[in-house]
Design a protein that fits this description.
GO biological process, one term: acetyl-CoA metabolic process
Binding site for CoA: 212, 255, 259
Family: Belongs to the thiolase-like superfamily. HMG-CoA synthase family.
Strand content: 15-25%
Active site: 86 (proton donor/acceptor), 120 (acyl-thioester intermediate), 250 (proton donor/acceptor)
CATH class: Alpha Beta
Shape: globular
Distance between the termini: 32 Å
Largest sheet: 10 strands, mixed
Helix content: 25-40%
CATH topology: Peroxisomal Thiolase, Chain A, domain 1
CATH superfamily: Thiolase/Chalcone synthase
Pathway: Metabolic intermediate biosynthesis; (R)-mevalonate biosynthesis; (R)-mevalonate from acetyl-CoA: step 2/3
Amino acid sequence: MVDRPQNVGILAMEIYFPATSVLHDALETFDGASKGKYTIGLGQYRLAFCTDLEDVISMSLTAVQCLLDKFNVAPSQIGRLEVGSETVIDKSKSIKTWLMQLFQKCGNTDIEGVDSTNACYGGTAALLNCVNWVESSAWDGRFGLVVAADSAVYAEGSARPTGGAGAVAMLIGPNAPLALERKYTGTHMDHVYDFYKPKLASEYPVVDGRLSQSCYLKALDLCYGRFCEKYEKLTGKPFSLSEADYVVCHSPYNKLVQKSFARLAYNDFLHRSSYLDGTAVALLEPFRTLPLEESYSNRDLEKVSQQVAKQFYELKVGPSTLLPKQIGNMYCASLYAGLASVLHQTAGALDGKRALMFSYGSGLASSLFSIIFREGEGKFSLSHIASALDINSKLGSFITVSPEEFERTMKLMETRYGANNFKPIADSATLRPGTFFLLEVDSLYRRTYDIKTPIGAMNSLHC
């Protein structure tokens, strides 16, 4: 009998986001919003966005190629490739098929998997699928590869500042430095209309912001409760936030992450509050018998629970917020940009630590799972992943444009969505070296891409 693979999870990561960006404080002034509405009210700093040179396909190509190069992984070593995205380029042809250009030139077309779609949850569905594959009898010994990528754009108005863009690629296999504790996963699925995209001629969503926030928090409650039940059943001891060193939440905007962590603290108060001090318990006690539905809109509970959670927030949640606040909402990539932020800021002290990961996609699909960090050795080690992510360099290469330029780009991108027979007009100087970009869309809607390589660079693709 063959032993099952152990400690299956993420062996390597790469993140890509466009260099073009706009600052939220400048958007406040441009939109005539009150001072702090976006920077404090949303908790955001900067928003990265695609020009007509870039899209979800080019970002995914860049992330995958960079991961293969940085970690010296041959395309022939990939046996499953799954993409999670809600950015629709084609209603039939999956994004994964465009990525096959990186593999078929090396003769590897034996790669399972296609795209997963459900709002911001698709990346997590792709990740869990790849982990399940490695743990199953179908695994052939090769790596899995997950791509979570989106361009989040909104119609002109109050939701537009919650946009962003980015792609995360993750290599999946056994003996991983980021091992998923798969058996504890808590999931909640439901049918709601909180955020959806019914207008096929537009990439802008229909959003009920108040409903979406309450759905997010309800899903968090249910996923956390189910996670805790499984943990206690399998380990014989209760789970609380004291068992988690880091908490990473899907981040449409940072203020919701703050509310989410406070909600977890409230859950612990109701069910497993042994680590909370007397002051915290006394503050929350008036809300013990508050009806559940009322608790999602009670401003006093929100304020007090955030006050109680504040003492733990910077330690457990703060390290995950760097990239989401700097890039904006990346939909499927958002959660994993938070994980990359933890690696970047705490890699030297992660061995043996646990991170809770909460993934939410409107409509809705949600899961809460956990990752155990293991230092590892060589190229598949926490320290090497953190170094290879090269986050300081990427953040330092941002090109900050005016809100006027951002608005002009958004109007241009409206005309590009679903269009044919055009070539991009944006300046390629805005692209970092090694970035894939769109060359043209022909009269038959066929898309062609190229890569901006450093001067004198050789083709690094190895088979």
